[in-house]
Amino acid sequence: MLPTADVDNRALLRQIACLRTIDVSLLERLRHEALTVPDEQLWVEEYSQYQSGGWSTLSLLNGSGSSTDVRIGDCIPVATTLLERMPVTRKLLTSLGLRYMWVRLARLGPNSFLWEHRDYDELSDSARQRLHIPLMTNSSAMLVTGGVRVWLRPGRIWRLTPTHVHGACNLLGPDRYHLLLDCYTDDRLAALTANEWLDDADLVRLPPATETELQVHFRKALSLARLGYRQSAEKYLLRLFYQRSLPEGLIYDLIVSLYDALGDAGAAREWSASKTTLLGLAGSRGTA
């Protein structure tokens, strides 16, 4: 019988893993293009229901060729006008030889969050994975999946299986820039993922929340809401996802209970519907 840590690591590897390293000089050139080529006013904040604000994207490969068309879907992708101005990035994408569905440049600002969610539910049954290439990041920018905070170290290509519940945060800044590659599963992708790994130094296992802790957090959120700070109360609970290992969807249930306690049946219904959307039973998903 495998030790618990080994079982946990194998389960985590199904959700997030490193695939290969990227040469430092190449990373610098990719970073330079990401920071200098996109026009500042073109960044699009899409998927507002999934985020706190501060997460924006531009498309490099999509079905329309427009960099501001960022709501992902199945398509035969073409280079956008933005990618045509980024030769180093274009060469990397070609060299990987993957069957892309969509490719984006994503920016996550300081004190920004992508809430607990899963992706791809509204798309076809085709198997796909999302690859992350971190270009600029910091130690407070984390991805959370499987009850673990993961620092996506730059200089590597990472695989995320976004059909597992996950979220992302950038607590302190500066901006986090990633290339996001949504790829269909094929032999080339299988070869790229054949020797995937994780480093313990990049992982922080979140402690499970006790019932007492949850009650304390709920009472504080309720106090904020009763003082009129409803959005602050919601965010206070939503941020628990980055601090504690919790059962899937429990945070949304707490927010529904919050509005039940306030006697606001409409808001309770809205958050119940949001839980259904964010966790993969309805709606569109294409976030981090």
Could you write a compact summary of the structure shown?
Helices cover 32% and strands 24% of the residues.
Features:
alpha+beta, disordered N terminus, 2 domains, single chain, seven-stranded antiparallel β-sheet, Jelly Rolls
Descriptive report:
- With 288 residues, the protein is α+β, with helices and mostly antiparallel strands.
- The protein folds into two domains: 4-205, B-lactam Antibiotic, Isopenicillin N Synthase, Chain (Jelly Rolls), CATH 2.60.120.330; 211-278.
- It contains eight helices and twelve strands.
- It has helices at 4-13, 24-36, 87-96, 187-192, 211-226, 230-238, 250-262, 265-278; strands at 16-21, 55-62, 78-79, 100-108, 112-117, 128-136, 141-145, 148-150, 156-160, 166-170, 176-184, 203-205.
- A seven-stranded antiparallel beta sheet has the order 1-9-6-11-4-2-3, with helices on one face.
- β7 (141-145) and β8 (148-150) form a beta hairpin.
- The radius of gyration is 19 Å and the shape is globular.
- Residues 1-5 have low confidence and may be disordered.
Major sheet: arrangement of strands: 1-9-6-11-4-2-3
> Could you name the CATH class of the largest domain?
Mainly Beta
Summarize the helix and strand pattern as letters: HEHEEHEEEEEEEEHEHHHH
**CATH topology category name of the largest domain:** Jelly Rolls
Largest beta-sheet details: 7 strands, antiparallel
CA-based gyration radius: 19 Å
Second rung of CATH, namely the architecture of the largest domain: Sandwich
Q: Which regions are unreliable across 5 or more consecutive residues at pLDDT < 50? A: 1-5
Structural class: alpha+beta
Helix percentage range: 25-40%
Overall geometric form: globular
What is the typical, i.e. mean, pLDDT? 93
Write down how many β-strands occur, each being a DSSP E stretch of 2 or more residues. Answer: 12
Provide the number of structural domains: 2
Question: Quick one: CATH superfamily of the largest domain?
Answer: B-lactam Antibiotic, Isopenicillin N Synthase, Chain
Assess the beta-strand content as a share of residues: 15-25%
Number of helices: 8
Calculate the terminal CA-CA distance, rounded to whole Å: 35 Å
Organism: Nocardia aurantia
Domain Aspartyl/asparaginy/proline hydroxylase: 28-184
Protein name: Aspartyl/asparaginy/proline hydroxylase domain-containing protein
